[in-house]
Amino acid sequence: EKGGHDYFMLKEIEEQPEALENTLRGHFVNGGIVLDEQRMTEQDLRDIDKVFVVACGTAYHSGLLAKYAIEHWCRIPVEVELASEFRYRDPVLGRDTLVVAISQSGETADTLEAVRHARTQRARVLAICNTNGAQIPRESDAVLYTHAGPEIGVAATKTFLAQITANYLVGLALAQARGTKYSDEVAREFEELAAMPQAVRQTLSTVEQVRTLGRELADSKAVLFLGRHVGYPVALEGALKLKELAYMHAEGFAAGELKHGPIALIEDRLPVVVVMPSAKGRALLHSKMLSNIREIQARGARTVVIAEEGDEAVRPFADELIEIPAVATLLQPLVSTVPLQVLAAEIARARGYDVDKPRNLAKSVTVE
Ligand code: BG6
């Protein structure tokens, strides 16, 4: 049942290409993006002038990525907020606010209450959910289902990649409705998304390398994760996976913040995982990141670098180099996350923990 794997999570990591294919299927019709359920008018969509994304845990990290895509494509301000914080701080909401609620289960109490609060303020709600007919989609004005299939591992993997994909579809649907992108541009972006299952499949060739690395790092006291731009939410997710599965102190930082505090944490042999921006697509960010790696290496960190194939400049600074395919900037998280999932699972396994059922965690938390 685990498909010959030691634990479900590894099977689910390997199912990610199909999860993306299934999530994309049927959403590009007659040259345009379509949602699964749509109870808003075209005019409602055009009138939206503010987006809030609310979610918890891994879904929240996917939401952070939605901000990069929606602001870039739609020119609407986007705020991303932990669902458990959202309704307690009296956010400014109205008819022209779209609240995007992301939840694998569709039953998470914090997210559901955030949705209910948004509706009392007359905001529109769009749900991204992996469970057909769950409570959150039932209470929403529009729904896009991720089709990752049931996820057994308590720590989210394939649903995370599917959520990122769904977020981008929502971004394209909004851009199309608002006219901030021409239809040929929407078509081109969709094509790039459609190429991602293959890129993720290619990334799975790093699994054995990362498993070996995981065993080597299993005795570390802590692991830090650094990212910039879309690599920052990936760093947060890499750290969360490690906390959840390996019960290890792990933190994700925006690399630019390093010098404002976290660099004090660097000590000899501390593993630091760095998600490199694309060398071609983001040359400036790439060179800034190289300086960050230099700084941490000079202080004795053991650098684990996730970088695009052909990124020669980073090689001298990588104690371990994990190569991922070169893809469009916004799409890089779909490939850079994969080795971080494997790393967390394998460190946990090497420490003797149950990867599929981490202590104290539940797959879906229905109390606030
Ligand atoms: C947590 C799960 O309790 O809920 C996480 O352990 C998950 O893995 C989070 O990301 C949010 O769950 P959902 O179902 O709302 O996406």
Notable characteristics:
carbohydrate derivative binding; 44% helix; six-stranded mixed β-sheet; aminotransferase; EC 2.6.1.16; cytoplasm; 368 residues; alpha/beta; binds 6-O-phosphono-beta-D-glucopyranose; repeat; five-stranded parallel β-sheet; single chain
Please outline what is shown here.
The protein is α/β, with parallel strands linked by helices. The protein contains 14 helices and 13 strands.
How is this structure best described in words?
This protein is of the alpha/beta class and 368 residues long. Helices cover 44% and strands 17% of the residues. It is built from 14 helices and 13 strands. It has helices spanning 8-14, 16-24, 42-47, 57-74, 83-86, 109-120, 135-138, 158-178, 183-194, 196-203, 207-217, 231-246, 283-298, 332-350; strands at residues 28-29, 32-33, 37-38, 50-55, 78-82, 97-103, 124-129, 142-145, 222-227, 249-254, 271-275, 302-308, 320-324. The strands form three sheets. The chain has a six-stranded mixed β-sheet, sandwiched between helices. A five-stranded parallel β-sheet has the order 10-9-11-12-13, sandwiched between helices. A two-stranded antiparallel sheet has the order 1-2. Helix 8 runs antiparallel to helix 9. The chain is globular and about 55 Å long. The two termini are 33 Å apart. 54% of the residues are buried. 6-O-phosphono-beta-D-glucopyranose (BG6) binds at residues 56-59, 103-105, 108, 111, 154-156, 361-362, 364-365.
